[in-house]
Specification:
386 residues, cystathionine gamma-synthase activity, PyrdxlP-dep_Trfase, 2 domains, Aspartate Aminotransferase, domain 2, binds pyridoxal-5'-phosphate, globular, seven-stranded mixed sheet
């Protein structure tokens, strides 16, 4: 499909056709894995299609980057070796030592570590703020110094919701850019650039890849000047996605829509089940009317996602027992794959924030609800909680 056609098309069409035309020489419908580091030049500087060296560009990665831009409705997409490599590139491309950023007070642990242990010593200060509270974000901004407002919505693992449109206005009033980590929602459920965000970042390791078989990251931007800065740093720092990883991530992206709908269907059933179970305390899911971010989530997300957190009556030991008793839910970190995962954030994904303002409750269990037969998931939780 031509670029013009894809831009106007619906989400699934963009996910399947964006960024790639069947190969002109062979007609290959799927982008080949270009396992090459360099390219023959037709005379000095005579590049074919602009390809010179695979850190700078590789056709398998170019196809993925085009598809990422298409699904997020951005101007340009960039693929990285991991979500954190994508984040690091944003920080160095869009801030400089002496600048300041506002970050979520329950950021993904690795994001917090990057800000606190890598960017801060480099010279980028940060203030954690509760993003569900727009006034708290406004108060955390340092006029003239704040370069970025960094948003995760829903957050990990407490699934709190930030109002992207309102936060974009607050950031822009202060001359800052709004960055949204869209990993938990995925581009199917939420497209932050259409709500005023300047930069979207993903760990494509999660829903975009979707099969727990590849680690990767993405940045999508809507402004050409920002794109140039990200593109320069992507090449200058070199944390790019390789051709094999790009191929797998691109293959995953094509089925994102159908997978997400099933993730959401199954998560809704799991939430219903947990809400009426006597061994379960609070259930945290943006789709619940009792969730403080329910209204905002309903406004900016197509559905409420596949991540569910809950507190177990009986404290940390009881929560650990549940995590160690499931058979269909696999005990493991990460999320967003077709298989269901269970984890204890306090001891696993969020162990690095223990003792800080970002600490999570010890009786909290997080589920990444997969797309298995839902009755098997419910039976597994029933026996684990019993
Ligand atoms: C996993 C994750 C990241 C980091 O991505 P990697 O691919 O593991 O480097 C960033 N943000 C969120 C919300 C994540 O879940």
């Amino acid at each position: 499909m031509s670029q013009d056609h894809t831009q106007k098309a619906g989400f699934e069409t963009r996910a399947i056709h964006g960024g790639y035309e069947p190969d002109p020489t062979t007609g290959a419908v799927i982008p080949p894995i270009y396992a090459t580091s360099t390219y023959k030049q037709d005379g000095v500087g005579g590049l074919r299609g602009g390809y010179e060296y695979s850190r700078s560009a590789n056709p398998t990665r170019t196809a993925l980057e085009g598809a990422l831009a298409a699904v997020e409705q951005g101007e340009r997409g960039f693929a990285f070796a991991s979500g954190l490599a994508a984040e690091d590139t944003i920080l160095r491309a869009l801030t400089s030592p002496g600048a300041h950023a506002v970050i979520p007070d329950d950021a993904y642990g690795g994001t917090f570590r990057l800000f606190d242990k890598v960017a801060r010593p480099w010279g980028l200060a940060h203030t954690p703020a509760h993003l569900a509270d727009v006034d708290a974000v406004r108060a955390a901004i340092r006029p003239g110094e704040t370069a970025l407002v960094w948003v995760e919505t829903p957050t990990n693992p407490l699934l709190s919701i930030g109002d992207i449109e309102a936060l974009a206005a607050v950031a822009h009033d202060a001359g800052a850019l709004l960055v949204v980590d869209n990993t938990f929602a995925s581009p199917y459920l939420q497209q932050p650039l259409t709500l005023g965000a300047d930069v979207v970042v993903h760990s494509t390791t999660k829903y975009v890849g979707g099969h727990s078989d590849v680690v990767g990251g993405a940045v999508v931007v809507r402004d050409l000047e920002v794109a140039e800065r990200i593109g320069f740093h992507q090449n200058a720092m070199g944390a790019v996605a390789g051709p094999f990883d790009s191929f797998l991530t691109h293959r995953g992206l094509k089925t994102l829509g159908v997978r997400m709908d099933r993730h959401c269907d199954n998560a809704e059933r799991v939430v219903d089940f947990l809400c009426s179970h006597p061994a379960v305390g609070t259930v945290i899911y943006p789709g619940l009317e009792t969730h403080p971010g329910h209204e905002v989530a309903g406004k900016q997300m197509k559905r409420f996602g596949g991540m569910v957190s809950f507190r177990v009556n009986g404290g940390e030991q009881a929560a650990l027992r549940v995590c160690e008793s499931t058979h269909v839910f696999t005990l493991g970190e990460s999320l967003g794959g077709v298989e269901s995962l269970i984890e204890h954030p306090g001891r696993m994904t969020h162990a690095s924030v223990a003792g800080t303002a970002l600490e999570v409750p010890a009786d909290l269990v997080r589920l990444s609800v997969g797309i298995e037969t839902v009755d098997d998931l419910l039976a597994d939780l029933e026996q684990a909680l019993g």
